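Chapter summary example: a protein plus AR6.
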Amino acid sequence: MTLKFIYQDITKMNVDAIVNAANTQLQGGSGVCGAIFKAAGWQKLQAECDQLAPIETGEAVVTSGGNLAASYIIHTAGPIYQKESKNASDLLAASYHNSLKKAVEKDCDSVAFPLISTGVYGFPQDEAVKIAVKTIRQFLLKNELTVYLVFFDEALFTKSQELFR
Ligand code: AR6
């Protein structure tokens, strides 16, 4: 029943599942997605993803963790901020919520999230952190899970830690 902030490369996390900031076609890409595909084993992970694609924005699906320490990768497509401006917040919350549900379905005790949609997809970072924290805290009221929110930007990590202490 804990949410922890951590400044780390998510591919190095020793947890039951890590979440990938994917696209609806589940195609290996850049950013955190590229790092995860590379560390997990690109071809094998892409083959698993191809069986599950496409997904809706806000939906989540699960593959193996490949060569990662994590047993599972939960792939969720966050909203493209410019495209979904009206529904972007709800869709981002759905990405977190649906990923958490998948983690529980797979009996995970621990799961690590990147800041979904805050890179290529352009979601304002401070707002995205707020939505992530709110959605995760709500879920943890009823579920036993350790959740890590993984920051890749040290300044944002420090600022967010102070804000949500
Ligand atoms: N560990 C943790 N966080 C990371 C890492 C890492 N190794 N690398 C980057 N980040 P982005 P999106 C942070 O662009 O905006 C891909 O091509 C990064 O600083 O990876 O959801 C997909 O295939 C940022 O805060 O994801 C999709 O097509 C956050 O991860 C599209 O980009 C998310 O940035 C998804 O875009």
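Key point: The domain at 2-163 is CATH 3.40.220.10 (Leucine Aminopeptidase, subunit E; domain 1).
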